[in-house]
Design goal:
By secondary structure, the chain is an alpha/beta fold. The protein is built from 3 helices and 8 strands; from the N terminus they run βαββαβαββββ. It has a single domain (2-146), classed as Cytidine Deaminase, domain 2, CATH 3.40.140. It is 21% helix and 38% strand. The protein has an 8-stranded mixed sheet. The longest helix has 14 residues, at 6-19. The protein starts with a strand and ends in a 9-residue tail after the last strand.
């Protein structure tokens, strides 16, 4: 289960709308926690975002790319805040909020992958996914909203 407060949800949506018609991307910074009352499923709480620049110059409308330097910068930002790099977010302009085959081929197990659909510049559905350990497929990850917290950004 991915816990995401309303302010951070709104910022992901706004980032997707700002970068439309290109894909947007960024890192999810947070903490992994015990299952608690989630029926045995682990809880991962996103506490900050680390917006990134889509480094893809050949097809930014339907692909995104980050560099090793981007990953290291996100990891440093997480560490400064006492957090971990727990996942990534990106948008799908004029496409459903589900992972593509390209997404699967370029993803890593363990991380949460949040996708927001942006249709004609307006953010729509938002989903989260976890890649199977054997990298064969994504599994849907429930997003639970946390009320009242404010967005915190690193960068």
């Amino acid at each position: 289960m991915l816990l995401l407060n309303e302010a951070l949800t709104n910022e992901i949506r706004a980032h997707g709308a700002r970068d439309y018609p290109n894909e947007t991307c960024g890192a999810l910074l947070g903490l992994d926690g015990p299952a608690g009352d989630t029926g045995g499923s682990p809880r991962r709480e996103v506490r900050a975002l680390f917006p990134l620049t889509n480094r893809r110059d050949d097809s930014p409308r339907n692909r995104f790319s980050v560099t090793a330097d981007d990953v290291r910068a996100a990891e440093r930002a997480a560490a400064v805040g006492g957090l971990e790099l727990v996942g990534w977010y990106h948008s799908h302009p004029d496409h459903p909020a589900r992972p593509s085959e390209y997404d699967r081929e370029h993803a890593w197990p363990w991380y949460s992958y949040v996708i927001v659909s942006v249709a004609a510049g307006e953010p729509r559905d938002m989903t989260s996914w976890l890649l199977a350990d054997d990298r064969s497929q994504f599994h849907s990850e429930e997003i639970a909203s946390l009320p009242g917290a404010t967005a915190r950004h690193s960068q």
